[in-house]
Amino acid sequence: MHVNQIFLNISRQNYPAEVEGSAKPVLLCFWANWCPPCQTVLSRLDGLADDLSKSVKLCLVDVDQEPEIVTDLGVTSIPTLVLLCDGTTKTSIQGIKTKRDLRHLITVALH
């Protein structure tokens, strides 16, 4: 699946600079290639990317490649979205949501 170039792939190596050191809130999308619901959520986020990227940094975490990040943030299922502001979890969204619901949940958590 092609994902908008706005999304940044997060690894253990770039997590401190890109997530912990981010001046903007960070939306982490925990996903896996083999997960059909993850593909659905990624497609919906991709449709919102241009709008969301104005207020949040959009990031992807491949759960198979980055199990330490998964464990550190307490992610137990995929797809899961975690919104961090200044290193603190503002909201966690699990499962498939509509584009409208995703936009609403993220907007509410930012304010």
Unreliable segments (pLDDT under 50, ≥5 consecutive)? Answer: none
The CA-CA distance between the termini, in Å, is 32 Å
Q: Mind telling me the CATH class? A: Alpha Beta
Instruction: Give the overall pLDDT as a whole number.
Output: 92
The helix count comes to: 4
**Nearest-angstrom radius of gyration?**
12 Å
Q: Would you count the extended β strands for me? A: 5
User: Any idea of the CATH topology?
Assistant: Glutaredoxin
Going by CATH, what is the homologous superfamily? Glutaredoxin
Biggest pleated sheet? 5 strands, mixed
For the biggest β-sheet, the strand order reads 1-3-2-4-5
What share of residues is helical?
A: 25-40%
Structural class: alpha/beta
Task: Work out the oligomeric state of the chains in this entry.
Answer: single chain
Overall 3D form: globular
